[in-house]
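Hi P.,

Sorry for the delay on this. The queue was packed all week, but I finally got your sequence through. Input first:
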Amino acid sequence: MEVERVLGSLGVITGRAPAGARPALLAVEGVSSVDEQLQVRLPPPDAPVQ
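Then the structure:
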């Protein structure tokens, strides 16, 4: 696993892990969830308002 940020005041750690590592991460005491990466796409600046 590659830790990118530790947001202690929020109780969140961000980072990357191989796809098969999710069960092992969930087994760590104190871990309540392991979320998959979400993709956000924004329209180009000249796109009409939706």
